[in-house]
Amino acid sequence: MKRYSAFAIAREAVRHHTGWERAWRSPKPKDRYDVVIVGAGGHGLATAYYLGKNYGITNVAIIEKGWLGGGNTGRNTTIIRSNYLQDDSAAIYEKARSLYEGLSQDLNYNVMFSPRGVIMLAQTEHEVRGYKRTAHANAHQGVTTEYITRERVKELVPIINIDGPRYPVLGGLYQARGGTARHDAVAWGYARACSGMGMDIIQQCEVTGVETGADGNVSGVQTTKGRIACGKLGIVVAGHSGVLAEMAGFRLPIESVALQALVSEPIKPCMDVVVMANTVHGYMSQSDKGEMVIGGGADGYNNYTQRGSFHHIEETVRSLVETFPMVSRLKMLRQWGGIVDMTGDRSPIISRTPLGNCFINCGWGTGGFKAIPGSGWAMAEMMSKGTPGPLAKGFGLDRFREGRFIDESVAAGVAH
Ligand code: FAD
Ligand code: PYC
User: Fold this and answer.
1) Same domain, 298 and 361
2) How many A from CA of 404 to the centre of ligand 1?
């Protein structure tokens, strides 16, 4: 990857920025790759990156029907935390969070990781018990979280009203090294690094069919840019996982639902922590530009609409205003939606499939941005070795047959 001197930066300033190298190439697809990844969201790109970095596999294509990062990766509200209850989850989310700590240096690309702290408010006795339990579990798992009092919540978030009549704040689960990162930059950083290793990112190219050979293994994919043969296939398409699985001839225990978010006009800095109010289905953080980034629950019905709707603004703002009275005076700037892929136990699927050389990564639901580096790491290990490693092992499709669920409904809380 090219590095630029101070002289080059000055030169580009006078020649109107016409000489910069593209961050990633836009190649024509080759006839065959060792590995094809479907989906250039964060998880697909991170999978490709760690295939190259950790296992030296670089004859890889990442195929994207739109533009890279244009799915949920570029639509999410960027909360990063690893305060999950079960051991399998704590391990993969903490791996991801710790990779985020050094990701800008690793990719040589500023992903603007901001470990500003995340608080999940306890607003019912049930949540108090739940979060105390999570803090104890996290201590055993090597994840640093703490249960804090309502007074400490108020100290950390002065704009909060802890004495609401319906849902007073009783305390909170605090992860001081949780936070946010710039979502586009995560996709762009991984994409640039993949392209730099010689991988092909093929955008505006939809996978329309999955071909299997006489041995039952995948032999290639049909796309809107022609047939592409592959040695191994990775399906990493979030809300469209069911569609791809159907093309490949197997079924998934996944439901696709729209999840919406909104941002306000930029205002002066007023909150330097991420706050999630899971009982009322609302959460808020302040972006570096000053916008209040706000979200709530997923749509109450399955759908494939990538858009916002008025009822969501109304419901989310109504639920937040008791705890954050300042919300009533904010002007909203824009809203949007993404299609998330929900499993019944609110845990992801990182798994082999009924086809020998076909692997799937999905089911991150409303919470997969935080997992991108760890998920890519684990998926790359499974694809290179053909079998899941320690991080992915618990998340196989077999758990749905065996009834071995990884219940994360509390940790996934706010948007589910
Ligand atoms: P995507 O980024 O959706 O990538 C999948 C890609 O596959 C897409 O680009 C799509 O175009 C492509 N694709 C689909 N079908 C095909 C095909 N046939 N051929 C080729 N390409 C195809 N998570 C958090 O951790 N913290 C948050 O604060 C958070 N907030 C969220 C807020 C909202 C509003 C939404 C919608 C999600 C939020 N999430 C959050 C969840 C998070 O965004 C997702 O879990 C994560 O981005 C999933 O990444 P991905 O790479 O699997 O999927
Ligand atoms: O997973 O932390 C999360 C989250 C918050 C909002 C949507 N997802």
Assistant:
1) no
2) 26
